[in-house]
Specification:
This protein has 291 residues and is mostly helical. It has one domain: Orthogonal Bundle (Ribonucleotide Reductase, subunit A), CATH 1.10.620. Helices cover 69% and strands 0% of the residues. The chain has helices at 32-60, 66-95, 101-118, 121-144, 146-150, 155-170, 174-182, 186-215, 221-243, 259-270, 272-275. The structure holds fe (ii) ion (2 copies).
């Protein structure tokens, strides 16, 4: 079945460059620890998403279902748009002077190149579905908890993350359908989920610790406590959504789309610039149009 909701959007984000009054690493000034967790994940996107795209391209010639091929092509275009926007934001982090970024990026580049060289396409497609299943869970969590996590933060960065996850929800079924079409099997799917989850969480954790160390926050007890609280909050909210993926009968299409994400898609249709600059003081509203 072709998923007609997948939409390609040219997002007009404007990321404010760093200056002596503004550090883009702390785009949520009230929550610098959460900002760096997100920044670490953002640094992974220009390595993870091209790897997903290459795996899906490699699968393309083996797929016989025309509707699935159409979905796969849209999926690739959405993911390509995601990592390009993250690259733009990541450059503002580099320009702010974070010296650990090169090492974080080299490690991610090495990881994905090794997976591609040493693992089968079957494994890489299972990783892709594992990541996508997790991205659906994370996207739902971020939308449900948006006021706490993004309230009063910099509009462009909050809008980048929320746009990305609205589209992750839109293409939630594609990697599942590709894997199921070529390599059906419960244990392969679950193996991919566990591997992808452990890999992404571990690398993200390494990244935010290095970023927070450069901030000088790793020496602060208050910052340690704030980091612990936000990590537990996020994990506690993701866990039930992650556990449901383990059900043998799981299919991402069973998961209802959040109303806020559908309202966001409508906002984009009416006002693309507004969707790229959400009013983060009004995130509780269904459509937080900038004033
Ligand atoms: Fe993406
Ligand atoms: Fe995705």
């Amino acid at each position: 079945m072709t998923d007609a909701r997948m939409t390609l959007r040219a997002m007009p984000f404007v990321f404010e460059p760093s200056n002596k009054h503004w550090n883009p690493g702390h785009w949520n000034t009230a929550r610098p620890e959460f900002s760096q967790v997100v920044n670490s994940a953002s640094l992974a996107m220009p390595f993870l998403e091209p790897y997903l795209i290459r795996s899906m391209r490699a699968a393309r010639s083996k797929i016989t279902d025309p509707a699935l091929l159409a979905d796969l092509d849209l999926y690739i275009r959405q993911e390509a748009a995601h990592y390009k926007q993250h690259q733009l934001f990541n450059e503002t982090l580099r320009a702010a002077g974070y010296t650990c970024i090169d090492a974080i990026e080299s490690r991610l580049a090495a990881d994905y190149s090794k997976l591609e060289k040493e693992r089968s396409l079957r494994f890489n497609l299972a990783y892709a579905e594992g990541f996508e299943a997790m991205a659906l869970a994370i996207g739902q969590m971020l939308i449900e908890d948006r006021v706490h996590l993004f309230g009063d933060s910099k509009p462009a960065v909050a809008s980048l993350v929320l746009w990305h996850f609205v589209e992750e929800i839109e293409h939630k079924s594609v990697a599942y359908d590709v894997l199921h079409h070529l390599h059906p099997g419960y244990f392969l799917r679950i193996g991919g989920l566990i591997y992808a989850t452990a890999h992404i969480f571990w690398r993200t954790r390494q990244g935010y610790h290095r970023l927070l160390k450069e901030d000088g926050l790793s020496r602060s007890l208050a910052s340690h406590w704030a980091l612990t609280k936000v990590i537990y909050r996020v994990l506690f909210n993701i866990l039930p959504k992650w556990l449901r993926i383990l059900r043998p009968g799981y299919h991402p299409r069973q998961i209802a789309d959040p109303a806020w994400g559908l309202a966001w898609a409508k906002l984009f249709r009416d006002n693309p610039a507004g969707a790229a600059k959400l009013d983060t003081a009004r995130l509780a509203e269904p459509v937080p149009v900038p004033s």
